[in-house]
Every structure is written in C-alpha cells, then in structure tokens.
C-alpha cells in the first residue's frame, strides 16, 4: 500500500514538472511572439533603418558607403535593377522635370536591347553603377562566379561612360568581395534610406517613411523594372517636390562624395 502511494506521488510530481515545463514553454513562446509583434510595429512605424542602426552597421561593417555629411543640403538618389524599356524612360522624364540626378545601378544582362537607355542616362547627367550581370545575391556566389559576374558587368557598362560605384546584389558583402572591388578601383555603396520597396510596393508608405528618415548626406535606395519601377515613379512624384521644398538637391553618388571631403577619399 505504501509502495502504491509512493508511485502515485511520483506520478503526480512528474506530471507537475511536465505541466510546469509546458507553462514555461508557453511563456517563452508568448514572449517571443510579443517581441516579434513589437518589432513589426516598430518596422511599420519607422519604415527605414534608424540612423543609429545605420551608424552601428557602418562601424561594424566598414568598406562600403552608407551616407555622408556634406556641407550643403544634398541627398543622393540611387535606383537599382534597371534598365527597363517601359519604366526607365518614365523615371528619366520625371527626374528631368524636377532637375534631379541619380545613380542607376544597372544589371548588365538587362542592358542588351536597352543600349539607348544606358546612353540616355549618362547624356542627361546621371551616372551608371555596377549591379553585376544578373539579379542574384552576390555574396552567395563562389569566388570565381562572383568575379566573373562583376567583370562581365564592368565590360558592358564601361561602354557608356566611367563606372566607379558598385552595389552587390541583395546588399550583403564580405572582405573578399571588397578586395575585388578595390583591385578594380571601385567603391562599394549601400545606403541609409531604404523602405524595402520591392517587398512593400506601396508608394504612399515608401514616400512617407523615407521623407521622415532623409537628412543631408542620405543615400536613398529605390528600384526599377516592372512593378518596382512603377512604384518608384509614384514614390518620386511624392518625394521630389517635398525634398525641393525643404531645400535639398537630389544628386548622384559622385556629386555627394565630392561635396564631403571625407567621402571623396
């Protein structure tokens, strides 16, 4: 009888421990969900990477340009993934209307058949940047494939004018990639004002969060091609008049770098 009671007591204790463990797991899961919800609310409220985090990333991952500190009220506009036969001409017309210049990071495979657009970019005061030969995450490529894609793009894009800026696909980089860029006299450029427009192609949202984030020396990131290019046109129709009203000039990366003595080195 006593043995039976001990077995019952042990069973109850084990069950209690299991219930306690499940409760702890439930509490942890709840805390994780709450944290994720908090991050989502913060992201949707801020929309862009906050300045303090951009500075932290720049310090921990040096070698690329994120933003500068010019003496004038300048912001650099960068547009990735073009050219596109439909949307790029519309963007060029819009930029001309507002006397704005941009650095277009072109994918060289998309230049074929759009050579006249690449020429028009340079002719109208914009500059071309290297965004590799295909739309893929550069950091995931093997060293050989990475350098081949980079140099293929370089050989195509240099036909239209000097190319000094490179932006790796998907924005991630490592020390090996930087060494290749430096070997070929390129500067790596990322940015500081990015509303994740490929994932959240809502022009009202993108324009509002970027206008909250922008400051002198900011590097704005937008995208061209298909729905991304159509969204960028709508975003810029909202942003460019407001930037002008605030006294900003919208310029290329090279113009911004020249205006900042530290950035021009």
Strand content: 5-15%
- Low-pLDDT stretches are 1-9, 21-25, 34-45
The helix-and-strand class reads alpha/beta
Shape by Cα distribution:
globular
Largest sheet: 5 strands, parallel
Individual helix count: 9
Order of helices and strands: HHEEHEHEHEHEHEHEH
Key words describing this protein structure:
single chain; 265 residues; alpha/beta; TIM Barrel; five-stranded parallel β-sheet; three-stranded parallel β-sheet; 9 helices; 52% helix
What does this 3D model show about the protein?
- The chain is α/β, with parallel strands linked by helices.
- The protein is 52% helix and 12% strand.
- The strands form two sheets. Strands 2, 3, 4, 7 and 8 form a five-stranded parallel β-sheet that branches.
- It is globular and about 45 Å long.
Question: Helices and strands in order, then pairings?
Answer:
Blueprint: H1 2-46, H2 51-60, E1 64-65, E2 74-82, H3 87-97, E3 103-106, H4 115-123, E4 127-130, H5 143-157, E5 165-166, H6 175-183, E6 187-189, H7 203-213, E7 219-223, H8 226-245, E8 249-251, H9 253-259
């Amino acid at each position: 009888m006593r043995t039976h009671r001990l077995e019952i007591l042990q069973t109850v204790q084990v069950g209690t421990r299991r219930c306690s463990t499940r409760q702890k797991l439930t509490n942890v899961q709840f805390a994780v969900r709450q944290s994720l919800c908090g991050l989502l609310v913060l992201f949707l409220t801020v929309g862009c990477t906050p300045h303090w985090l951009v500075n932290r990333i720049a310090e921990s991952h040096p070698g690329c340009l994120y933003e500068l500190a010019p003496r004038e009220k300048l912001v650099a506009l960068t547009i990735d993934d073009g050219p596109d036969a439909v949307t790029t001409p519309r963007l060029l017309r819009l930029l001309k209307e507002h006397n704005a210049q941009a650095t277009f990071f072109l994918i060289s495979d998309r230049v074929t058949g759009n050579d006249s657009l690449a020429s028009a970019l340079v002719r109208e005061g914009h500059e071309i940047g290297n965004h590799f030969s295909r739309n893929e995450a550069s950091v995931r490529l093997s060293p050989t494939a990475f350098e081949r894609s980079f140099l293929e793009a370089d050989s195509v894009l240099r036909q239209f004018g000097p190319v000094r800026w490179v932006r790796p696909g998907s924005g991630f980089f490592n020390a090996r990639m930087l060494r290749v860029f430096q070997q070929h006299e390129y500067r790596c450029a990322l940015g500081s004002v990015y509303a994740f427009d490929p994932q959240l192609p809502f022009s009202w949202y993108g324009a509002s969060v970027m206008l909250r984030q922008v400051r002198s020396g900011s590097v704005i990131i937008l995208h061209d091609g298909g729905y991304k290019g159509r969204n960028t046109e709508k975003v810029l129709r909202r942003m460019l008049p407001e930037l002008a009203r605030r006294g900003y000039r919208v310029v290329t990366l090279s113009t911004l770098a020249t205006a900042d003595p530290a950035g021009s080195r």
